[in-house]
Amino acid sequence: MLRFALRRLASLLPLLLLVSFGFFAMLRLGRGDPALDYLRLAQIPPTDAALALARAELGLDRSILAQYLAWLAEALRGNLGESWFTRRPVLEEIAHYLPATLQLAGTAMLVTIAVGVPLGLWAALNRDRWPDHLTRAISFLGVSLPNFWLGFLFVLVFAVTLGWLPAIGRDGPSSIILPALATATMSACVMLRLVRASVLGVLGEPHLRFARARGLPRRTLIGRHVMLNALLPPLTAIGLHLGELMGGAMVVESVFGWPGLGRYALTAIANRDYPVLQGFVLVMTTVFVLCNLVIDIAYAWLDPRIRLEGAA
């Protein structure tokens, strides 16, 4: 298992470098002048002399590859630069905002699993009956609604009209309920449909008919023979859902005033704060890659054929 994990980690590192370089180059080759944005945020008049000095200070007079390698060398030392807007270290600010985003995304993932898996199993075991039709209609509706619109709807109903839950902020456990529900709704509905399709596929397998012929109890059939085999595809999808939840949290954080990394990144986008954006993409990509590594290891632990194929 350790060799398998190391191989997977080695294969993910080039992906991390490719994403960081692609985003770095996109910022430099996009519309606008980074030196001009730097002077604007520093409130320095953009004279020709100031622009030339800013380009030399930021290394913009070198090639993109040279600029990236210099930035990467500093990033490997734990230095992601200094925000052009706040004049504070980027890594320090990311470390301040990241826990709130991880809390929101983690809670949303728990909601996704707690809602999607049981409803998907219930729909599959009652195929073409009213529970199946009901859950499929709910999943279709949930996938169709954007999370920011759900956020405004939840605020209107549960915070403004009923007064049950706080509308904004991060004060106590009750403040995370509405943001987590708004973030997790689409992922939970996708998980529901995936679990339903996976369980239906397992129910038609020959080994399940043999298990029924042996007279095994229904609980044993579902828990040991159906769920253990049916949860492998949804487990793989959890890694993709995590990226979706982290991305969706950016918008939801703005709706609910959640003090997370998403709001911090949106402010950096509005200000064209290049060091913050580069650090944000690097940290988020690293979190996503590590979470997918954990999912791959869990998948290989549940299905030893993955390890054997990798070893072969």
TrEMBL record:
The chain crosses the membrane at residues 104-125, 137-164, 176-204, 225-243, 280-302. It holds the Pfam family BPD_transp_1. One of its GO terms (molecular function) is dipeptide transmembrane transporter activity. It is a multi-pass membrane protein. SUPFAM superfamilies: MetI-like. Belongs to the binding-protein-dependent transport system permease family. This is Nickel ABC transporter permease subunit NikB.
